[in-house]
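Morning run. Coffee first, then this:
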Amino acid sequence: MIKYRGTRWFKFLKRHTERVRFWSLVILDANRYYRSNFFANRSRKTQDNLRGEIAFYSHAIEKGLIHREFRPLFGKSKLMYMLDLLEEYTEKGYSLSDSRFVSAVNVIRDYCEVHVKLGFNDQISWITDRLSQFEAIPSTTVGALTLKRSDVLKHVKGSFSDLSNWRHSVRDFAAGDFDESRVEEALRISERTPSVCNRQAWKVYISKRALKQPILDIQGGIGGMAHGVAEVAVITMDNQYFGNVTERNQAFVDGGLFSMTFLYALAEQGVAACPLNADFNNRNDLRMRKLLNIPYQESIIMVIAMGNYSEESKVPVSLRDSYQHFTKVVD
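And here it is:
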């Protein structure tokens, strides 16, 4: 009997089969994403497509409202498109009590109120005219929330519920000496993050000085708001720790778990922080790798800006969906 196991032929077939399985799953992932995302579904948006896109633009306007260097009449194109989305949502007969729809209407109201106070009534009349069709939508608290440093530091040391409720993404930090040991302690706490089969494939690149600004420039999502950043962390996952083709996305699952643990630990240590996406194109992916000497085998998960809390910090309210909305009980 010919034994194939251990022969070159058997190993070749195994590698080839694994490669075929891998690419078939990658194509399935890509197809599922492409057929579902709100950019590809321009002409056939579902309610969830609209909810996602409305939240995206609503949050962009909220961030503009907390800007230290406030720019009057910012975001005109975003507001126009946001109003288009709200009208499309209404025309399709979706629920007008939906939290994201209500929040978006109120964010635009907040934008208008701020500009009326600044004397820009005429310049925003086109917004108020289109917004009038949503007069029946109830008011809710959106826009900018002011956090007091003393309140934050008191509550993040309480229960986990308090920690979760008082952790906010801070985009404007206080200048002054920064106690680096707090970041080290947050990293120590993050050692307890669960990972698939305890693989612990995460890596953390921390820049304290010269590379901070280049990292933020490549990331590009906090431009003009990153005052007083003390340190920047770049979280990656090493794909050498994974094996089967079905683990192709595990780096992003475990990387997300680690990043959230780290963010909570930073908050508990009294460090203000803001998670920033790593949705890089090829050029920026290569730029970040070259800047920090990140090896090819590592996937970049996210960037985190860190610093001291100001005595008062403005953050977006960022209303959340009720758990009843996203929970499905299956018997």
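The longest helix spans residues 8-36. Good start to the day.
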